[in-house]
Amino acid sequence: MAVMRKLFARTLFLLVAGLCVAGVSAAPPKKAASKPVAPAEKAPAPAHAAPADEDKGKEINGVCAACHGEFGQGGKRGEYPRIAGQRAAYIKDQLKSFRARKRINIPMYPYTQERELPDEDIEAVSDYLAAIQLPTKWPEFKDSDDALTRLEAVEKVMIVPRAEGDIENGKAIYQKECFSCHGRDGRGRGKFPLLVGQYTSYLKKQVDSYLKGERPHDEEGPKGILNALGEKDIQDILAYLTSIQDAEK
Ligand code: HEC
Ligand code: HEC
Fold this sequence. Notes:
The chain is mostly helical. It has helices at 2-26, 51-68, 88-99, 119-131, 147-155, 167-182, 200-211, 231-243. Helices cover 47% and strands 0% of the residues. Helix 3 packs antiparallel against helix 4 (119-131).
């Protein structure tokens, strides 16, 4: 019952959020907006994608934005992962796994059903999100910027706080065991996900569910590379990943 109530509340919230989004884009720009959110021209522009698909992707992303943020930047310190700039092939895979319940994601399950998100919508929204380039430099603020404006701008930057750990040890393991799929720079390749710039708490949660066998990690079967590592090694890898995020691409 509590779950139903929560779902209902969430639906209502999304409806309202959706209406607000629709309202904002439909209404002519007003001189004095009541809430100083980032203006549209500051939005990171998707790089390449056919305009039609881009519009469609953007529209679908309106639903995702309620949890993952308007620009796919994620939120609640990693409860909602960043999905902007993630590999398109990987996003598509994950959306299909959520739908098929191969990867359990209760909050997202209703949004991934065929009726809500047919395959062509998965294509459009994944390509749209993958093309978003979040800034990797800290914003400069004016004295007049209030706390909310600052917080929202900072959350959009593709840099997460440094994680504790032995960076040298993390580097050694990562560059031996992980790079072949996740890339030397941690930005993924092909269908292998980007790890750099992702919230540490989220990555940690995923590693935990791989270790428990709740989510399959790679093609090697239930016992993979992560099972061979100790808790400290994993923490060190996470620390290393947060140390290379502002490196040049
Ligand atoms: C009700 C909140 C909610 C909505 C709406 C939502 N998501 Fe999510 N999403 C989540 C949560 C929570 C997770 C993390 C699940 C976990 O911890 O394993 C997630 C995870 C993901 C992931 C996996 C990221 C990764 O690195 O593996 C992708 C991709 C994703 N969402 C895409 C979308 C897209 C696209 C939409 C819109 C069609 C959407 N989400 C709508 C809550 C939501
Ligand atoms: C053989 C290829 C391969 C290797 C090597 C590999 N991974 Fe992965 N990794 C994957 C694949 C594939 C996924 C996505 C799995 C899925 O579909 O759920 C993934 C996902 C992840 C995720 C979750 C990302 C997200 O956004 O949810 C983490 C964290 C991760 N890997 C960490 C590591 C670490 C740490 C290492 C090295 C110790 C490593 N991986 C080595 C293939 C690999």
